[in-house]
Write a structure and sequence with these properties.
Structural class: alpha+beta
Largest sheet: 2 strands, antiparallel
Strand order of the largest sheet: 1-2
Order of helices and strands: HEE
Number of strands: 2
Length: about 80
């Protein structure tokens, strides 16, 4: 989805630059939007009332896009 968004934006008006629109596009990857810790019984626990450490990078964002497609497959290192 990220690559598609970048391609769409770059091809929408090829004669312009981002500076003309005062526009910045940033990408931040995080396995979870909330804090995560490993419980003493070995289970991974999501703390849903506390944002992840990198959430301070989102302050001031006008638009945020979240992609949850990865979570439909329960495989990999970030398995919930």
């Amino acid at each position: 989805m990220w690559q598609s968004l970048v391609c769409l934006l770059l091809t929408s008006n090829p004669s312009s630059t981002n500076e003309e629109y005062n526009f910045t596009l940033q990408f931040y990857w995080s396995a979870f939007l909330t804090e995560v810790y490993n419980h003493e019984n070995g289970e991974t626990v999501l703390v849903v009332d506390k944002l992840s450490e990198n959430s301070n990078k989102w302050i001031g964002a006008d638009i945020m896009v979240f992609n949850s497609g990865h979570w439909w497959g329960l495989h990999g290192k970030s398995k919930s």
